[in-house]
Amino acid sequence: xxxxxxxxxxxxxxxxxxxxxxxxxxxxxxxxxxxxxxxxxxxxxxxxxxxxxxxxxxxxxxxxxxxxxxxxxxxxxxxxxxxxxxxxxxxxxxxxxxxxxxxxxxxxxxxxxxxxxxxxxxxxxxxxxxxxxxxxxxxxxxxxxxxxxxxxxxxxxxxxxxxxxxxxxxxxxxxxxxxxxxxxxxxxxxxxxxxxxxxxxxxxxxxxxxxxxxxxxxxxxxxxxxxxxxxxxxxxxxxxxxxxxxxxxxxxxxxxxxxxxxxxxxxxxxxxxxxxxxxxxxxxxxxxxxxxxxxxxxxxxxxxxxxxxxxxxxxxxxxxxxxxxxxxxxxxxxxxxxxxxxxxxxxxxxxxxxxxxxxxxxxxxxxxxxxxxxxxxxxxxxxxxxxxxxxxxxxxxxxxxxxxxxxxxxxxxxxxxxxxxxxxxxxxxxxxxxxxxxxxxxxxxxxxxxxxxxxxxxxxxxxxxxxxxxxxxxxxxxxxxxxxxxxxxxxxxxxxxxxxxxxxxxxxxxxxxxxxxxxxxxxxxxxxxxxxxxxxxxxxxxxxxxxxxxxxxxxxxxxxxxxxxxxxxx
Length: 570
What we know:
Elements: H1 17-38, E1 42-46, H2 50-61, E2 65-69, E3 81-84, E4 87-90, E5 96-97, H3 100-108, H4 113-117, E6 119-121, E7 126-130, E8 135-138, H5 142-153, H6 155-179, H7 192-198, H8 207-211, H9 218-223, H10 244-252, E9 254-257, H11 262-274, E10 278-280, E11 287-291, E12 294-300, E13 303-306, E14 309-313, H12 316-323, H13 334-339, E15 345-353, E16 362-366, H14 370-378, E17 389-392, E18 407-415, H15 424-438, E19 451-457, H16 459-464, E20 497-500, H17 510-527
Parallel strand pairs: 1-2, 1-14, 2-10, 7-16, 14-20
Antiparallel strand pairs: 3-4, 5-9, 6-9, 7-8, 11-12, 12-13, 15-18, 15-19, 16-17, 17-18
Helix pairs in contact: 2-3, 2-11, 2-17, 3-17, 5-6, 6-7, 6-10
């Protein structure tokens, strides 16, 4: 108990005015001291895509007061659900692969990713139908996959697959650290991690070139390389590092999320709010607030929000050209952004049909002229005669997506990003008809007669959704735009600004986007002088000197559950 100070001659029952003031000052100083000790650092996240939500989870658990600003009416960005006429579709990604990163993020916050997100392994993962003849049902059971390749293409290619698995297992082991560590300059090449990777990576080689050493059957090479489309690139241009994309599927499998992949971001948003994160939907950001080179917050309609740190989770080029004044950007100026390489786009059909198809959950039709198809995309041409098509028939696995006896059919066609030579308003109906006919090659012979709900999405529509040039996979992943040549996780042209998503290191695709969130969160927390408790998951990087910060062990935020498990599926 605080006791007022009094003189010896003073009546103890009547403290003087001086002593009362002294006591008040003492109490005020004490209160201010307590407030200063308990005041949380603040962070603002612009955009609630998977990267922004993962950042929010890690930062909130670590003791940061987090607010998310989302322009749409619900979280998820392109990884969210679309409801129409009683049917549910994923807006963008339709499957989950390489769950290790999200497992570790959830372990860091005391949760189990598989239990929280409802991940369901698929086997077969997908059927790949070749226009050149034949098909293969891809599986993560490696012995079975070897035999299926043998049946399709003979002993040499089966043996090649076994060598491919061993090579890429080693490639992943060596490259993982590089992909999980920020790159800030060419000098990073001299680090131990880069030297180790250099022993097995050949920067001059492409995915297609690397695979030709293992497989002489074009169809098998295609089965190990079409995954470069996850980066929006051709296997003839993608660096050989990305042979690991297919390997990750064969080694770890792919997953469906009950209710659609968009249910993942929905659940992540719910968990974030349980942890105290404030999510403000229908709140577009007008601009970031700069004081010199320091970003100190963001402007929204009728309000300025000031914080310690800002995280941007949005299409990079669009965000830069709309949120950051051009004069604040030299390396990433509007003029330089125009000259950068961008991924392909997609032509989409979301079809609600009054029939159930006993067909695979995922199917890919690979054009009989696959290389020409890729060449057309690179050169801003549409393939009309035999385009490659991806189809998801998720209702075969998940009956929650459509009315009883009905199906959702999701169709994706890789096409060029927006270009003056392609006027989609003039051709989209004809191209839609072309793609509907292509579906017959995957068993959907009569689908035209059963469509009761239909949505068409073109690259122009993606562009209107704040995606620069409609390039849904962001900046290309060639050597000119990777590692330190990509926008950095701790943005190099402003203070207190961090980038998350496909536009930063390590790149596009859900696993790498989650990794970008983890990298950026580690940097942000270190810059705040925080060393959080991530339940045994390392909150810093191997082979990188940890900054000298005052260790702060964050208590689990409200709604967080600790676990002693390893975060993997039981």
